[in-house]
Design a protein that fits this description.
alpha/beta, single chain, binds nicotinamide-adenine-dinucleotide, Aldehyde Dehydrogenase, Chain A, domain 1, 14 helices
Length: about 475
């Protein structure tokens, strides 16, 4: 891809089945983080456009919620087929706006297809129950019903997976959606809309906006038709939404930030775990909410672990997502890049030693993969969510102490344990205060499993059957009967 090729695509809102320009007629450009080229422009919406989208979603809810689940399922499964058939093309767009390696982008589109297919099937099993009453003249049952219009606001780090996870569950349950993806990655959201439109989703069932997040978020919170907001993003914005929702009682699902500890016991295959640690840490350049962050390594294997991981991190190929062999791309924007570079600098000034890999160019928002040793646990490299390719490694000797260190964070999303001792595996998995624990694996999640955070990492769950019920209300129907 060459620099300065100019805007290739102008992306419009999708409201009531039509691609429309925002009322403001303003637009904003989208930049490729790997070479700073402009790759697209987006129409720039505000609360007024959001209100139009909510009106369309509210009107469509009347009929969509009445379709039977097999009809909804057929459309969502067709969308899954369309995504699989076009994943290679769609992934190129994702690479151009996010910088991630093509294989990672393609994998993300395939997971999105799986999400639509899985929720299409799972919604068929949203069974209620009958409850034996304590009186002869009474019968009771519970049923599940879709909530109504749902607002879905998502982050750029997984520009396909984040919206797909919420849209699939909400649409399968019979809700209608008003979505706002990230302004940094609109192409991915746009092609997700294209796939659902081609699959035959009726007008108004899904609406998608590009534009001013605060203004759109305020309209979603204030508009009585919106029954829930599903948000994937930072803990900071999650708290803003909670403040707003406290005035309107809008329900919230929050998938927020993390600061995942990794505990590596002395009984593991050190070389294999050290190598896989680097790969896991650098996935999506560390911009992953469940990214392994604080590596606590048993002192008996610490030196060997650091030696192998340092060698591995220096050999990671950082580059352009569209080039074969690239293992890590740039960060999403200059702000994120500067923040992570400063965090490394601060750690070094506080006495840490850094081992760094190479970056391909000073153009683009690259940060060298960096391993830190001798890190002060009070620095931001340990306390903050890094969201970059930085790997602090800290020795430990006592399992109770390391659990205290691991839990000493306001976050509670993912955590990881590597050990071949079954008793230690149970001890750590029960002692860690996190919504997800990976034992001897780096992917403690799945389409069919609940994904959610404890403490300040979130509220509710996405994925799995729990993810479906986030978009449905339970209703008790109680019958008075006579003569039976
Ligand atoms: P962010 O909170 O800045 O933005 C997320 C979304 O919220 C974007 O669409 C943004 O435009 C919108 N937004 C910003 N201000 C808003 C406001 N005032 N009202 C309404 N919406 C607003 O987060 P980010 O930097 O885009 O993403 C990174 C964060 O997301 C990290 O903390 C990461 O851990 C988290 N994340 C969590 C999960 C999860 O499942 N737990 C998944 C992915 C990312």
């Amino acid at each position: 891809m060459e620099r300065g090729q100019g805007v290739r695509t102008m992306l419009l809102n999708y409201i009531n089945g039509e691609y429309v320009i925002a009322a403001s007629e303003e637009m904003q450009t989208v930049v490729n983080p790997a070479n700073e080229d402009v790759v697209a422009a987006i129409t720039w919406s505000n609360g007024a456009d959001c209100k139009l989208a909510i009106d369309a979603a509210q009107a469509a809810f009347k009929s969509w919620s009445k379709t039977n689940v097999y009809q909804r399922s057929a459309i969502l499964k067709k969308a899954a087929d369309i995504i699989r058939a076009n994943a290679a093309d769609y992934a190129e767009h994702t690479v151009s706006e996010s910088g991630k390696p093509l294989a990672e982008a393609k994998g993300e589109w395939m997971v999105a297809a799986n999400l639509f297919e899985w929720f299409a099937e799972e919604a068929k099993r949203s069974y209620g129950r009958t409850i034996p009453a304590n009186r002869n003249d009474k019968r009771m049952m519970t049923i599940w019903q879709p909530m109504g219009v749902v607002g879905v606001i998502t982050a750029w780090n997984f520009p396909v997976y984040n919206p797909a996870r919420a849209w699939a569950a909400a649409l399968a349950s019979g809700c209608t959606v008003v979505a706002k993806g990230s302004e940094f990655t609109p192409l991915s959201t746009f092609y997700l809309v294209v796939a659902l439109n081609e699959a035959g989703l009726p007008a108004g069932v899904l609406n998608n906006l590009f534009g001013d997040a605060a203004s759109i978020g305020e309209e979603m919170l204030a508009n009585a038709h919106v029954k829930k907001i599903s948000f994937t993003g930072s803990t900071r914005v999650g708290k803003l939404l909670m403040d707003g929702a406290s005035k309107t009682n809008t329900k919230l699902s929050l998938e927020l930030g993390g600061n995942a500890p990794v505990i590596i016991n002395h009984d593991v295959d050190v070389e294999a775990v050290a190598k896989s640690s680097v790969i896991a840490k650098l996935r999506n350049a560390g911009q992953v909410c469940i990214a392994p962050q604080r590596f606590f390594v048993h002192e008996k294997i610490y030196n060997q672990f650091v030696e192998v991981a340092s060698e591995a991190i220096k050999n990671i190929k950082v580059g352009y997502g569209w080039e074969a062999g690239t293992q890590m791309g740039p960060l999403i924007n200059q702000r994120q890049q500067q923040q992570v570079l400063k965090l490394i600098e601060d750690a070094e000034q506080a006495g840490a030693t850094a081992v760094k890999g190479d970056i391909p160019s000073a153009t683009g928002w690259f940060v060298p993969p960096t391993l830190l040793t001798g890190v002060d646990q009070h620095t931001e490299a340990v306390n903050m969510e890094i969201f970059g390719p930085v790997m602090p490694v800290i020795p430990f000797s006592d399992k109770n102490e390391v659990v205290e260190w691991a839990n000493n964070t306001p976050y509670g999303l993912a955590s990881y344990v590597w050990t071949n001792n079954i008793n230690d595996a149970f001890f750590f998995s029960e002692a860690l205060e996190f919504g997800m624990v990976g034992i001897n694996e780096w992917a403690p999640h799945g389409t069919e499993a609940p994904f959610g955070g404890w403490k300040q990492s979130g509220l509710g769950h996405e994925s799995g059957s729990e993810g479906l019920y986030e978009y449905m209300e339970k209703k008790l129907v109680s019958w008075g009967v006579t003569g039976i």
